[in-house]
Automatic annotation (TrEMBL):
Protein name, per record: Cupredoxin domain-containing protein
Entry-linked PANTHER family: BLL1555 PROTEIN (PTHR36507)
UniProt keyword annotations, A-Z: Electron transport, Periplasm, Signal, Transport
Residue ranges of every copy of the EfeO-type cupredoxin-like domain listed in the record: 14-109
Cellular compartment(s): Periplasm
Annotated signal peptide: 1-27
Origin: domain of life: Bacteria
Pfam families recorded: Cupredoxin_1
Amino acid sequence: MEKSVSRRGVMVGAAAFAAVLTPIASAAENKVHEVEIESFEFEPAHVRVRLGDTIRWTNRDLAPHTATADEFGWDTEELAQGESGDVIVTEGIETSYFCVFHPHMKGTIEVIS
């Protein structure tokens, strides 16, 4: 016995399929921006990001470091050599940061649309 497929069934199936794919497509558009901490500097010191992107700081120095927002709204916490810390870019994220152990180390984030 063959089962007939209705137009409504096809439309409901197509809508469900599209709903499943939408989050995958959105997640694929978000980028991870790598910032290396080396020789007591953030490299690059200025990153251009979009909402939903991730910034990842990786410590290449022997000394511990952090990436900490100037007003302490976000923080990677202490990163030992070889460790990484991530921050997801959200609406209203603080855009200037420094290392709490070495306050002369500074960086900026530029959120673009």
